[in-house]
Structure formats: structure tokens, C-alpha cells
Design a protein that fits this description.
A: mainly beta; globular; B: 4-stranded antiparallel β-sheet; about 0% helix
Chain lengths: ~110, ~110
């Protein structure tokens, strides 16, 4: 079957580092995406991994291990505005057919 | 440049009615996909269109349909509405053709079925 697992909720302190894990089992794999969604807003793109390893983009980094079906999103120097849901999604067919996890709601506290 | 535009933003319907939602992609984007978002299920893929052709369809009943026009604008229709169809319907556009690419989402159309 197909499945993406992420923790439902996480809480972290402003200025800290947080790692959001994602494990997946899908029928196909053409890459893994991370999206950020603030309450009441549209999801916005954060990162894309298609090869194993770490992709760094400013305060955000994303890691992929295809053999383990595992990814994580690393957020550094947390800010209050980082409070949002973080969605892990697998591109199964290369045709914008993304299979999403249910998301991790991150709350950043002072 | 203008983002993805969805209309209407909010609507209320009753069971048994039908609804049509519209999506205008970012200029130049030829791929449009639709997702249903509910608190319990998260984002679920409905279908994807590229150059007026449906390339992929998710696991939704035939009451959910869509189409894409020559200018890449897309509509989705839900017939014989059920209470469980209450959700946020998100449209996303992308430049990518054969390979998956970054999706740009609209703000969504929030449908409430009474």
C-alpha cells in the first residue's frame, strides 16, 4: 500500500533547531517535496529532493534517503513565523501527481 | 506576475446540488492539478491536466470531474454533492511537463455542503 508518515504535531523554541521526519512507501518515486502551509493559506514550496543527500536553502535543509524511504526537513534559527504545517509529498509519476502526508503542525514558542 | 487564481473563494451548497470551481494558472504554466484538503485526510490528489488532457486521476468517484481549456484555465465539477465533500479545494499549476516540478498553489475554494 501507499503511505506517508509524519508526526502530527511538534513544538520548538524560538532560535532552536527542529527536525521533521517523513517516511514513505509509495508505488512510484520521482522526487520528494516539502511544502509549508500557514493556517488559512495556500501551501508554498520549500524544497525538492530527487537524489540522496542534503539540500540546503538558507535556514531550511532537506535530506533524502531513497533506500530507506526517509526524508527530513531541518529548520534552523526558528522564528515565530515558522509556526505552520509542514507537508511531505512524494511525486509518484513525474506528472505533478503528488501524494501528500497529513502534515506536521509546528508551533514555535518564545 | 499574478499567482494562481481560484474562484469562488467560499461557497455553500446543499446535498444533491452540483458545483463548478474555476482555476486560472500562472501565465505560461500548462499543467494544472486539483487537490482536496480536509482536516482528517490532508491533501488528496483529484486529477491533473496538461495541454487540455487529463494525465492522471486520483481515487475519487465519478461525481468529481474536470477539464482544461486551451488557455490552460481549468474547472472542476462535483455533482450530487454529499456532506463529506465539504473541504478546501486547491488548484496548483506548474511549468513542468513530463517531469514533476514545483507546484504553485492557489488560495483554494472552501466548499461547505449542508
Amino acid at each position: 500500500g501507499q503511505n506517508i508518515d509524519q508526526p502530527t504535531e511538534m513544538t520548538a523554541t524560538e532560535g532552536a533547531i527542529v527536525q521533521i521526519n517523513c517516511t514513505y512507501q509509495t508505488s512510484g518515486f520521482n522526487g520528494l517535496f516539502w511544502y509549508q502551509q500557514h493556517a488559512g493559506e495556500a501551501p508554498t514550496f520549500l524544497s525538492y529532493n530527487v537524489l540522496d543527500g542534503l539540500e540546503e536553502k538558507g535556514r531550511f535543509s532537506s535530506f533524502l534517503s531513497r533506500s530507506k524511504g526517509y526524508s527530513y526537513l531541518l529548520l534552523k534559527e526558528l522564528q515565530m513565523k515558522d509556526s505552520a504545517s509542514y507537508l511531505c509529498a512524494v511525486d509518484q509519476t513525474g506528472a505533478n501527481n503528488l501524494f501528500f502526508g497529513t502534515g506536521t503542525r509546528l508551533t514555535v514558542i518564545p | 506576475k499574478a499567482g494562481v487564481t481560484q474562484t469562488p473563494r467560499y461557497l455553500i451548497k446543499t446535498r444533491g446540488q452540483q458545483v463548478t470551481l474555476s482555476c486560472s494558472p500562472i501565465s505560461g504554466h500548462r499543467s494544472v492539478s486539483w487537490y482536496q484538503q480536509t482536516p482528517g485526510q490532508g491533501l488528496q490528489f483529484l486529477f491533473e491536466y496538461f495541454s487540455e488532457t487529463q494525465r492522471n486521476k486520483g481515487n475519487f468517484p465519478g461525481r468529481f470531474s474536470g477539464r482544461q481549456f486551451s488557455n490552460s484555465r481549468s474547472e472542476m465539477n462535483v455533482s450530487t454533492l454529499e456532506l463529506g465533500d465539504s473541504a478546501l479545494y486547491l488548484c496548483a499549476s506548474s511549468l513542468a511537463g513530463d517531469r514533476g516540478g514545483e507546484l504553485f498553489f492557489g488560495e483554494g475554494s472552501r466548499l461547505t455542503v449542508l
